[in-house]
Amino acid sequence: MINFAERARLALHPLAQKLFLLMEKKRTNLAVAIDSTFQEELLAMADLLGPEICILKTHVDILADFHSNLGCALRKLADRHQFLIFEDRKFADIGQTASLQYEKGLYHIAEWADLINAHIVPGPGLIDGLKKIGRPLGRGLILIAEMSSLGTLAKGRFADKAVQMGENNNDFVLGFIAMRKLSRQPGMLHLTPGVKLKSGKDALGQQYRTIEDVLEKDNSDIIIVGREISHAPDPLLMAKIIRERAWECLLRSWQVRTRV
Ligand code: S5P
Question: How far is the CA of 151 from the centre of ligand 1 (A)?
Answer without folding.
Answer: 15
